[in-house]
Structures are given as structure tokens and as C-alpha cells.
Amino acid sequence: MSIEASEQFVVGIDVGGTGLKGAVVTLQGHVHLQEHRPTHRERGPKAVIESILNFASDLIKQAGNEHVAAAGVAIPGLVDEEAGIALKSVNLGWQDVPLHKLLEEHLGLPVAIGHDVRTAGFAEGLLGAARGSENYLFLTLGTGIGAVMVLRGATYVGVNGVGGEFGHIMLRPHDGPLCACGARGCIEALASASAVAQRYRTLAQITEEIGARDVAELANAGNSIARQVWDDAIEALGLGLANYVTLLDPERVVIGGGMADAGQMLFEPLKEQLSKFVRFQPVPALLAAQLGNNAGYLGATLKAWVAAGIPQTELSWSQEAFSTAEL
Ligand SMILES: [Zn+2]
């Protein structure tokens, strides 16, 4: 690949439990390079940090040092984005890692650190299903529930950075299933992809692996247990969303993750439920996330461009520019 002398890039990395996804992207959103590496979490938190630092400097080297303007990294767990500190990730075993400082020292470039779901939500806002909207809720319904509230164009996380946890809205605090947070009957315990799969396995007394989409398909095929499990999950989501609409009146709700793999089997009944619960407010558009597994690293590159001094409004890339093979 030849690089024009004036060409500028940023590096974006999405840190997952098992893999790191990295890309080198131009100001117009063209993906110049893509790479996937293991996270090495089995070697401990220090090795994970080293993997990230080395991956970033290798990508920069490949793009040519003088061509790279900034780097962005999306990380899981609790994150203080402003201070650039990875507060805690049970998955990666780290605590209070000053990742922003470490990267800046290692790379000698402007750096942006983002929480993985917020970074993905940021990408959906600029490039995906929430493009053009300033007031939306982004949800990933997967192993847990990740949520990003965007109000007037900015992500809102509250006074302590823990706001917007849609998944931990309690719907059945007395008789609901136990949630990872310790409470009972949170939306996450009722309607995440893994909660749906787990409940079906328990009620159907099966042990084999099954996905949320499989439960939806079984329900559609007339399986009464699957029907019950799926309908209950949709009702919980509809109720949670109705309360969100009552409080914040969003324009759009963008949904990704394992539950969204069920497509119209999720969106149609969910819209119906939401319309039933909402009394006088307009029902927001319910949309499938568009960027899939690429949202994290694309968001990291967008944040890197912002760190390099480019205004967010100039980062409206065309679909053709960034649509590349899934990493
Ligand atoms: Zn909870």
C-alpha cells in the first residue's frame, strides 16, 4: 500500500475479553489496515496492558510514524473516561490502570480512552443507526445489558459516572431472578440474551448451549416454554423502555447484541409492548444497531480523531468508506 506524504491516520483498538481488534483509519473513514490479536488475559493484567501498548505501536509503525495523528482505545469494565483510568475490569483482572498516561508516554501521541459500550454507542451515533440523532438510547442485549444515554448530543453518565445503567432498572425486586449486581428482577436478569437462554434451559430442562435467537425461533415454531420465556423478556424490555420514554422522551432506541440477532422476532413484539405501555408520549423508533462488532474499534478511531483536534461534526463518514470485513 502506498501512502501519500500528506496522508494522516489514527489508530483505534477495541479491547475484548479474548481479542484485540485494531485498525488504522483516515480522516475520511477509510480503513487502511486491520488486525486482530489475542488479549493474553490468561497471562495476567500486566500482559494485557503490554499487549495493548505493543499492538498500538505496531499499528503506528505499519502506518508510518509521521502519518499517525492520535490513538483511541475502547476498554471494558468501569472506566473514568475523563481521567483516562481503567478503574476495574473483572474480566481482565485490572484495577486503577492509568491507561491514558501509559499510552501517551509509550506512543508520544494524543490519546483517547473510552468505555467499550459508550464508544460503540458513539460510533452508532456518528456512523450507524443513530446517525443524525441527538437524543437516543443505545442498548446491547448480550451476556449482560450495556446502555448509553445520549442527551442533546452528549453521553450522560451522571455525577459519579455510573448513570444510565438501563440493565439494572428493577422491575421485580421481590420475586425476580437474581442479577449480577446482587439485586433481584433487574432488566438484565430478565431480558439479556444470556438470561433468556438460561431461563429456557432451566424450564425446558436441557443442558446444551442455546442462543437467544434460538429461543425466539422455537417460540415462533410453537414451543410453549420458549414462547413464555420470549414473551416475558419482551414484556420486561417493553416496560423498561416505556419508563425510559416517560422520563427522557428519546428520538430513537438502537439495539444490538445477541437479542437483536432475533431481528423482527424482537423488534415487532417489542414495539407492540412499548406502544401498549406508553400512554401519551410518541413511541420512539426502535432500530437494529448497524455496526455490529466493528462499533468498538470504529468508535475508538473516531475518539482518536477528536483527540487529534478534529471537531465531531467533521466525522460523518460515508458507509462505503468504513464498511469492511468484520474483524
Ligand atoms: Zn442488576
From TrEMBL:
InterPro entries: ATPase_NBD (IPR043129), ROK (IPR000600)
Pfam name, any one: ROK
Gene3D superfamilies xrefs: 3.30.420.40
Assigned protein family: Belongs to the ROK (NagC/XylR) family.
Protein name from the UniProt record: ROK family protein
